[in-house]
Amino acid sequence: MTGPRCRQVDGAVALRTYCKKRIQHIKQQRDLHECTKEHRSTSIQPVEPISDQSVPVRFMCTLRLNTFREEMRRGAEQDFHEPSSCSACLDKQADLAMNFFLRKKRNQLQAQLLQEKVLSHLYSKDTVCLLGEMLKDMPKPSDDPCEIWQRLMSTERPTLHDKK
User: Fold this and answer.
1) For residue 129, what are the CA distances in angstroms to 18, 134, 136?
2) Would you call 156 helix, strand, or coil by DSSP?
3) Residue 133 sits in which domain range?
4) How far apart, in whole angstroms, are the C-alpha atoms of residue 161 and residue 164?
5) Residue 136 in 3-state DSSP?
6) What value does the mean pLDDT take over residues 148-152?
7) What's the confidence (pLDDT) of residue 3?
């Protein structure tokens, strides 16, 4: 015999064997307990516990297989979530799309503003403009030399003697 029927028979045999061992062990312990109460002596040795108290491997495999089958059956019967028809999922998707759109537009506007500032700076701070700003405070050849010396002396410049 092979197949599911054979596994069920093997599992039943294993379960029956396990249960018989457990029942015998419990009866032995009960008899020992009654015997010690009647005789009140400590000379009687306790019954050795069953050496193999674990559940048979074949029975455990059968239980695992049955559990797995049951989980697969439940999974097959369960309805799956469809985001395309769920209103909460659609609302969240719309919200995410709106946030993405706003973030993209804000970045475009910021990039455009930055580009305008760069161009404005380049136009107003080209080499000729910078030279003109530097030269506007310089004395002109038509200025009176005494006035030039007076302006130079009035601006305080640190000298080597002042630092000491």
Assistant:
1) 101, 9, 11
2) coil
3) 98-137
4) 6
5) coil
6) 84
7) 55
